[in-house]
Design the sequence.
């Protein structure tokens, strides 16, 4: 897929456009002076290693304030605001509350996964810089999420007994499918304290794993397992084709 | 659904916690002094009305640099960086390139829709402030997207002839379904110039509509048509249940 073709040529083309301050195709070209002011678009952002457990505890508690997507971002960036300062102090964490329920209750991407993608890409940087590890780390966390019995993290002071929170494998990064399979197994409604605590724990689980990977990256030891599914399928896609298409998985058109 | 229950009580509870600088459940309480520094979390952000056509042209061109999600954000925020300044200069637009292909090629939420949700929520603010119009505007744009023959916007200097870009209705906010239906109708591959230009035009169409709504809001005339689907379905969901479930749409468990 062209827009996620991570070829060196494209990467360096992108990086070059950024460095000389003239982004191809902009109506409002970025001057060198202006580019200097926009320090938030210089990557990687400064990062110090964080404690995964403390991060997960923060994410768990923040879920009950701003829910899944905001909570993952807050769990990492609130610590970095204190330990590093800028550019984290200038990032509007609470503005991402809308990620709840798979974007305003639409059940699309799990908000915790959106939060993890945002954090990984803002810390490491977008692939236009010439480094694709941010995008690939986000993708790696999505794949881990789809294959793992979640939630993995048990909070220190849970609001609901752990015995009431069964574990499920989503096989999908979509909130609708992840939450739906859990509700079916647990026999609990969307409004139940158990479903709410399951999503708070899942958010904590994602934040925990995110910080594990970011700490590896900080140590120079991150070797991504992330892949771009559209490169394999010739269409943007999850890995669970049969779940919706049953046995009739269509083939994408070939026009080039 | 509890996390998207827009009751006044919850809204004011959230707003109160923010105003006194002690967010319930935080491990790292926000002091009054610190809250003052974090101006990016005071809403609404300053907004001046933008020209929808100029915004769409910017989005179209930016698609070819940072793709769908980044392009929608850039089309609005790059203008506001010039016309307003902060907090837009401190927002890392390019960091959202990962929204491409429904988040790193996974086909989840259409990146242009993610960009529109981010812009609406950051300009108007999250519902924890006591105002839900940002989240509802994002949801309204998603519903418009699912029902509209897209792309609606024809760029002034298109890279591909307009006759080669058929229009399709997605019935879904998901990239996989939106792009898949278009590819099927157009008989074009993911890598084709036509598919790429379709997504660039769609991104411009979303940016155009987003600015139309933001301008209404700026004039005090925005009356949202946005709804939160999970309130209707008792599960986070799109409106096209039968498309995956066929005639066997399951009922969510009732546990309370």
Sequence:
């Amino acid at each position: 897929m062209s827009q996620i073709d991570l070829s060196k040529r494209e990467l360096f083309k992108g990086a070059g456009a950024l460095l000389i301050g003239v982004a191809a195709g902009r109506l409002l070209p970025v001057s060198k002076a202006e580019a200097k002011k926009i320090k938030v678009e210089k990557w990687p952002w400064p990062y110090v290693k964080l404690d995964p457990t403390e991060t997960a505890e923060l994410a768990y508690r923040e879920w009950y304030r701003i829910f899944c997507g905001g909570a993952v971002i807050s769990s990492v960036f609130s610590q970095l605001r204190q330990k590093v300062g800028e550019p984290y102090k200038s990032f509007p964490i609470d503005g991402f509350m809308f990620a709840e329920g798979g974007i305003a209750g639409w059940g699309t991407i799990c908000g915790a996964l959106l939060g993890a993608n945002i954090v990984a890409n803002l810390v490491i940087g977008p692939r236009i810089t010439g480094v694709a590890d941010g995008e690939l780390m986000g993708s790696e966390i999505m794949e881990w999420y789809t294959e793992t019995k979640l939630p993995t993290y048990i909070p220190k002071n849970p609001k609901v007994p752990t015995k009431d929170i069964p574990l499920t494998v989503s096989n999908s990064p979509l909130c609708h499918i992840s939450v739906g399979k859990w509700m079916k197994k647990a026999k609990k409604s969307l409004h139940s304290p158990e479903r709410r605590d399951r999503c708070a724990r899942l958010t904590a689980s994602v934040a925990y794993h995110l910080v594990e990977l970011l700490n590896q990256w900080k140590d120079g030891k991150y070797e991504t397992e992330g892949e771009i599914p559209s490169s394999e399928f010739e269409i943007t896609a999850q890995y669970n084709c049969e779940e919706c298409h049953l046995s009739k998985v269509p083939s994408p058109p070939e026009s080039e």
User: Anything to note?
Assistant: The CA atoms of residues 82 and 106 of chain A lie 34 Å apart. Chain A touches chain B through 105 residues (CB under 8 Å). Chain A has two domains: 1-35, 42-221.
